[in-house]
Write a structure and sequence with these properties.
This protein has 17 helices and 16 strands. It has about 550 residues and is of the alpha/beta class. The strands form three sheets. The protein has an eleven-stranded mixed beta sheet with strand order 3-4-6-8-7-9-10-13-14-15-16, with helices on both faces. A three-stranded mixed beta sheet has the order 1-2-5, with no helix packed on it. A two-stranded parallel sheet has the order 11-12. Strand 7, helix 2 and strand 8 form a beta-alpha-beta unit. Helix 11 packs antiparallel against helix 14.
Length: about 550
């Protein structure tokens, strides 16, 4: 087995608990009542006062780095200044400057936004018992919106007995900008996340948690972030397990798949491209003066001048080829150049339905002819014929549903399984598919006729976080998913915490399908169900066209 470069640290051994823990997902019942955890905690930067909520405690709006404002705009995160007295931690800090979801309204947020939130069980572990595992959540939002406080993690804290940390990080042009005067594109969004992980290492024990048992997890852009940390030398030793939700290293979207003039989506781009885009953007902003003075000009601009949809979207892809991310992450996985930690990774059954639904009015797929035309525009005539044979319109309720199904497989499901295969050659890897088509639509977006969202992108989130009301079958599934996630965080294996044993990824039927009901959780041959042999053949052509 080939490890990463010698400067990378060896992974810590996962804590091995009794078999009963694997089957229940909970720590053994204490014989005496544990002492309540403190609401006043002395962190390495100062004292904070949290809030009690019965079975759990919260500490919100804790700064983990100095405000990246003024001369520190586009600078690596610096340590937060110490404060005197007791800082109130009863409300979340400002969210980072961001675009509104679905493009409604203007930008919001602040550059002074590097805050995190801690949710912990109400009681500290008893003396002699192991401290709680830590789960650090990186939010999604396409690297252009989102915040840690949008996710209320009391379910894993109370039911799973873990300490959960949710993190803000710089977004868009503030977090993924590049320019020659910066010496490249330093991927500051990831650097912020690493600063938060260093804060966790320094402070977890003060909240009753184990700094040597940290799981990073995230969805969409947060999942892509976790993937990047697996491949980043700078993340060595900062975490010990990883969960990637709908954001594998190989995530992609074919060209013209959502709009006729939209290119292929690649979440990771060469640093040189980001630097060139940054130089061009500086010129358009009137900051094309003498060498060495451009950044000074850009740093004097008001944040709202920078937070335009064009610039935020332009700088929403993670640069690689730098010190933080030397290799394109999927290539790092294939080469075995990643941290040796256990990984859970998966997708939802209907990932692309919500994306396709938002563009149907502008780019309809009303009948078989329109469906065939879209296939040819995205894949070329020869490949289109093969894809249409695997995904005939007649096998789906509508042409739009057929299109969303094949895009889900091509963009998310099969790339994720390909990455899981690369991971499984070196580390324990567990693959899942969230399959509950009755999941609540918590987005507020209307579902078009003929294309219900089903188990769409992000629809597993209310099963981990308090985000939407759940019906009884969904609450039961939420308990089981929480059991799997928290047991994995505790032991490095999800085991049978959800009532069904979760095998390692490798043999054909080793992907765990997660849905409600007595038979809702079972293993499936996802590569066969989702035509991954077809998409593996398309993959090399896609790589060639995208470079």
């Amino acid at each position: 087995m080939r490890a990463v470069r010698r400067r990378w640290s060896a992974p810590l051994l996962a804590l091995v608990l009794p078999a009963v823990l694997l089957l229940t997902g909970a720590a053994p019942a204490p014989t005496t009542a544990p002492a309540p955890g403190p609401l006043v905690v002395d962190t390495d930067r100062g004292v904070v006062r949290g809030r009690a909520h019965g079975a759990y405690r919260t500490f919100e709006g804790i700064p983990y780095a100095a405000p990246p404002t003024g001369a520190l705009r586009w600078a690596p995160p610096r340590p937060a200044r110490r404060w005197a007295g007791v800082r109130d931690a009863g409300a979340a800090g400002a969210r980072c400057v961001q675009l509104p979801p679905m493009g409604t309204g203007g930008p919001s947020g602040s550059e002074d936004c590097l805050f995190l939130n801690v949710t912990a069980p109400a009681a500290h572990p008893l003396p002699g018992r192991p401290p709680a595992p830590v789960m650090v959540w990186f939010h999604g939002g396409g690297f252009v919106n989102g915040a840690g406080d949008l996710y209320r993690p009391e379910r894993p804290a109370v039911q799973g007995g873990v300490v959960v940390v949710t993190v803000n990080y710089r977004l868009g042009v503030f977090g993924l900008f590049g320019h020659p005067e910066l010496g490249g594109a330093p991927a500051l969004a990831l650097a912020d996340q690493q600063a938060a992980l260093r804060w966790v290492r320094a402070n977890a024990a003060r909240f009753g948690a184990d700094p040597g048992n940290v799981t990073v997890f995230g969805e969409s852009a947060g999942g892509l972030s976790v993937c990047a940390h697996l491949a980043s030398p700078a993340s060595a030793g900062l975490f010990h397990k990883a969960i990637v939700q709908s954001g594998s290293c190989s995530t992609t979207m074919p060209a013209r798949s959502l709009l006729p003039d939209l290119g292929a989506y690649e979440p990771f781009v060469p640093e040189r491209r980001t630097v060139a885009d940054g130089a061009a953007a500086a010129g358009r902003l009137g900051c094309d003066g003498p060498a060495g003075r451009v950044l000074d000009c850009l740093r004097r601009l008001d944040a709202r001048r920078l937070a335009t949809p064009e610039l935020m979207q332009r700088f929403s892809r993670v640069p690689y080829g730098n010190d933080l991310l030397p290799l394109e992450p999927w290539r790092a996985l294939e080469a075995g150049e990643f941290h040796r930690v256990p990984v859970v990774q998966g997708t939802t059954l209907d990932e692309m339905r919500i994306f396709v639904a938002q563009t149907l009015a502008a780019y309809p797929v009303a009948d078989a002819a329109a469906y065939r035309a879209r296939l040819e525009r995205s894949f070329g005539a020869a490949t289109a014929r093969v894809v249409e044979a695997a995904y005939p319109v007649s096998g789906h309720p509508t042409p739009a549903a057929a299109w969303a199904t094949l895009l889900s497989d091509a963009s998310f499901t099969c790339p994720t399984l390909r990455d899981s295969g690369a991971l499984a050659r070196h580390v324990p890897t567990y693959a899942y598919r969230f399959s509950d088509r009755d999941a609540p639509n918590f987005t507020g977006l209307p579902e078009p006729a003929g294309l219900p969202y089903g188990a769409s992108h992000g629809f597993e989130l209310p099963y981990l976080f308090t985000m939407a009301p759940l019906a009884a079958p969904q609450r039961e599934l939420a308990d089981r998913i929480t059991g799997y996630w928290s047991t994995f965080a505790r032991t490095g294996s999800p085991g049978g915490a959800g009532g069904t044993w979760w095998p390692r990824y490798g043999v054909p039927e080793s992907v765990l399908s997660l849905a409600p009901g007595a038979a809702g959780i079972h293993t499936v041959d996802a590569r066969a169900e989702h035509h991954c042999a077809l998409w593996d053949e398309w993959w090399p052509a896609r790589i060639t066209r995208s470079r």
